[in-house]
Write a structure and sequence with these properties.
Layout (H helix, E strand, L loop, with lengths): L5 E11 L7 E6 L20 E4 L12 H5 L5 E8 L6 E7 L9 H5 L5 E4 L1 E4 H9 L2 H7 L2 E5 L7 H13 L3 E6 L5 H4 L8 E5 L5 H8 L4 H12 L4 E7 L7 H13 L4 E8 L5 H7 L13 H12 L5 E3 L1
Parallel strand pairs: 2-8, 8-9, 9-10, 10-11, 11-12, 12-13
Antiparallel strand pairs: 1-2, 1-7, 3-6, 4-5
């Protein structure tokens, strides 16, 4: 008997208004081939489920502490303290020794405040479609739909295709948010069922792209051209990253490539760098991202927007 196909999802966000037209549900797939130096979603990178720890939810070893005894590997022990600034009371928190943790997740079963939780849940097609349908009234009223993001949703291409086909049958608008770093044979089958590709163009300089993301960009640019030739539609996304691609020269090169895609491009979205994801690295107890910089100014963002508009592109800033 064939095993039922499942997908590994790390988050589902309803009422999203920045991931395509209208009000949308964004489904975040786990696993990504890139390691962007500025990554604000580190929980998306690894494919296996991971243990997250949210300090602000931990009520401490005195009030709870059940996770310490629940861990069969002894990976959890009393840790540092958190002081309440309102009354100066202290709570002793727990700490997780990641070298001992084997991701059995027994601790999450006894953590009533959900300070310890699993990042990465298996969904069947039926389960995911049930969740998507809950928001269909919002799609219908706003011209929205569902966006499949990540991580890199094409890393789970078979499951993605199944859900895209089911959404098309039910008249739900679909968008695929992708790095474009995938084999063409994984991309080609989804094109007839994808209404819009949210497609990242981080840099046209392959050496710089490899240095800051871990992979070169030739495959990404080639796939964009193939999608355009096959009739796909794009919302091109350019993350504006200080010291990486925020210069006049870099934006000009990206704009020139985008122009090559012709009428396939409906809009270009500039995404200013931010460091709001730092707390997510803390939840995984990993080192912070390599790149930490000041976000680009409003003046710079407006200048890059005007630069692309003067090239004949329709541009928005998120």
């Amino acid at each position: 008997m064939k095993k039922e196909l499942t997908g590994r999802i790390f988050d589902i966000q309803g009422f999203s208004v920045h991931d395509g037209p209208g009000i949308r549900t964004t489904v975040f797939f786990k696993g990504c081939p890139l390691r962007c130096a500025w990554c604000h979603s580190p929980e998306s990178q690894e494919f296996p489920p991971e243990l997250n720890w949210m300090e602000m939810k931990c009520i401490g070893t005195k009030a709870c502490g059940k996770c310490i005894n629940a861990c069969p590997k002894g990976a959890i022990s009393p840790g540092g303290t958190r002081t309440n600034p309102l009354d100066d009371t202290s709570v002793q928190l727990v700490k997780v020794d990641r070298s001992l943790c084997d991701s059995c997740f027994e601790c999450t079963k006894v953590c009533s405040p959900k300070a310890l939780y699993i990042c990465g849940t298996e969904y069947t097609g039926d389960e995911l479609m049930d969740r998507i349908r809950k928001d269909k009234p919002f799609y219908d009223r706003s011209g929205g739909g569902v966006t499949f993001s990540g991580g890199e949703c094409l890393w789970q291409a078979e499951f993605l295709l199944e859900i895209l086909i089911r959404c098309r049958r039910e008249g739900i608008h679909t968008a695929v948010d992708t790095t474009g770093y995938a084999k063409w044979e994984l991309i080609e089958p989804i094109i007839p069922y994808t209404d819009l590709f949210l497609y990242d163009i981080k840099s046209t300089d392959s050496d710089l792209h490899r240095k800051l993301t871990g992979v070169p960009n030739e495959l990404i640019l080639e796939n964009a051209k193939k999608i355009a030739a096959a009739g796909g539609k794009f919302q091109i996304r350019i993350p504006v990253i200080p010291l990486f691609n925020d210069s006049v020269k870099s934006i000009a090169a990206s704009g020139a490539f985008i122009k090559e895609l012709g009428d396939a491009v409906e809009v270009v979205q500039l995404l200013p760098y931010h460091n709001l994801g730092t707390v997510k690295w803390e939840r995984l107890q990993r080192n912070a991202p390599v790149l930490e910089a000041a976000p680009p100014s409003d003046e710079l963002m407006q200048a890059r927007k005007k630069q692309l508009e003067e090239m004949g592109l329709h541009v928005i800033i998120h």
